[in-house]
């Protein structure tokens, strides 16, 4: 009897992804750097916040809708941009379709495996993400292309510090897919015939390139070629942040904020939204969990810009806790990648449904009729929970 393709938790999606994917592909999706302190805290910190549910007076209907950067969405969960989604042949296009069917926003990485034009066709509510990489002329070209494709906003991710090395080991990822590479990786891939057959049916194999970084009329660089350009680009300044915002000229989110003083500087630079993010635990290890840093940032700038949280979301109850501490919405990364690996577009839709159901249950149990009524009063928050980074170092508060 065939196994039911539906899964009831994100944890089950991850188990299925691990079984389905070659270890090298699965390993590329596993978050964390160095000792993995940050990724562990991203996940564990949510359990320290204890619900304070009501016993009666619940509401029959609950409103889970909101908006992000002027885009109405049916639930406060947005796709966070992640690069080279070679876990499924449709990659980011499948994710974009899933987000569209569930009424929410697609975030597309500049390191994505699918062109921005295909993704915006699948979901018009797409935000294009850029790193500070290459010349200003190249960045203008990429923004012009995304704008022409219909992207409705820009996400600038500027927190990356090129951390590397994991105590549990990093996967071997080839520079490009050719006959030699396929022979080398055959022992790793052949034991996973379902994954291999999915690509065989599609008529192509992952080429490990970044098409959205291709120069006009030129070839797309390989992932490692693009990464090399990024490493060699001088890091951005706050003046560069303001330049990016002005050059884009539309809704603009700064992703990777962890400190209160940086959040205040972002407001001064004119951003429309910030994402409290530690890059999924893949950047500087020992950075606190994003949910610990959210409250101070939201308190400082939440009335001036939209604040989102990215990191560790695995359940609808996690979403409720983030909203209660000041997030307008959350962004998910690994959660939807597990769903994509487990069951393609339907698997990503499954993840959205899990998060919607858990969020609705939390709003119901806490006695609210809308997500906009969630507040810190709905929880017990331990005195040592919060991390107010940069709150007294050059800030305006």
Q: Note the total helix count.
A: 14
Query: What's the shape?
Result: globular
End-to-end Cα distance, whole Å, is: 62 Å
In sequence order, what are the helices and strands, one letter per element? HHHEEEEHEHEHEHHHHEHEHEHEHE
Which structural class do the helices and strands define?
alpha/beta
**How large a portion of the residues is in β-strands, by DSSP E?**
5-15%
If you compute it from the alpha carbons, what radius of gyration comes out, rounded to the nearest whole angstrom? 20 Å
Number of strands: 12
Query: Strands across the major sheet, in which order?
Result: 4-11-10-9-8-7-6-5
Unreliable spans are none
- Mean pLDDT, to the nearest integer, reads 90
Reconstruct the topology from this structure:
Layout: H1 10-20, H2 23-29, H3 37-44, E1 50-51, E2 66-68, E3 71-73, E4 77-79, H4 91-101, E5 106-108, H5 116-122, E6 126-130, H6 136-149, E7 153-157, H7 179-189, H8 193-202, H9 223-232, H10 238-248, E8 252-257, H11 260-268, E9 273-277, H12 290-301, E10 306-310, H13 316-324, E11 329-332, H14 334-365, E12 379-380
Helix pairs in contact: 1-14, 4-5, 4-14, 11-12, 13-14
């Amino acid at each position: 009897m065939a196994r039911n393709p539906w899964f009831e938790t994100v944890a089950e999606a991850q188990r299925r992804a691990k079984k389905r994917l070659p270890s090298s592909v699965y390993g590329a999706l596993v978050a964390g750097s160095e000792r993995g302190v940050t990724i562990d805290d991203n996940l564990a910190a949510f359990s320290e916040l204890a619900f304070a549910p009501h016993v009666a007076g619940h509401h029959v209907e609950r409103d889970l809708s909101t908006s992000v950067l002027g885009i109405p969405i049916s639930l406060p969960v947005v796709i966070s941009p992640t690069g080279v989604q070679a876990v499924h042949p449709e990659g980011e296009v499948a994710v974009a379709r899933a987000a569209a069917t569930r009424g929410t926003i697609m975030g597309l990485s500049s390191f994505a495996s699918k062109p921005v034009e295909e993704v915006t066709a699948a979901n018009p509510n797409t935000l294009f993400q850029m790193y500070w990489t290459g010349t200003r002329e190249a960045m203008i070209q990429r923004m012009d292309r995304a704008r022409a494709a219909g992207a409705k906003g820009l996400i600038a991710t500027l927190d990356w510090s090129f951390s590397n090395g994991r105590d549990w080991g990093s996967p071997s990822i080839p520079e490009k897919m050719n006959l030699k590479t396929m022979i080398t990786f055959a022992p790793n891939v052949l034991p996973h015939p379902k994954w291999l057959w999915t690509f065989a049916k599609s008529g192509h194999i992952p080429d490990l390139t970044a098409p959205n970084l291709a120069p006009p009329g030129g070839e797309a660089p390989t992932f490692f070629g693009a990464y090399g350009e990024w490493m060699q680009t001088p890091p951005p300044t706050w003046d560069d942040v303001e330049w990016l915002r002005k050059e884009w000229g539309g809704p603009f989110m700064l992703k990777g904020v962890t400190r209160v003083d940086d959040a205040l500087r972002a407001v001064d630079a004119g951003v429309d939204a910030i994402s409290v993010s530690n890059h999924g635990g893949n950047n500087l290890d020992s950075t606190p969990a994003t949910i610990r840093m959210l409250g101070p940032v939201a308190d400082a700038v939440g009335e001036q810009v939209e604040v989102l949280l990215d990191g560790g979301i695995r359940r609808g109850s996690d979403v409720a806790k983030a909203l209660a501490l000041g997030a307008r919405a959350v962004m998910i990364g690994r959660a939807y990648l597990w769903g994509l690996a487990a069951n393609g577009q339907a698997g990503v839709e499954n993840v959205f449904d899990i998060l919607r159901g858990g969020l609705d249950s939390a709003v119901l149990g806490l006695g609210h009729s809308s997500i906009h009524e969630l507040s810190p009063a709905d929880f017990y928050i331990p005195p040592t929970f919060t991390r107010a980074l940069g709150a007294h170092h050059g800030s305006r508060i």
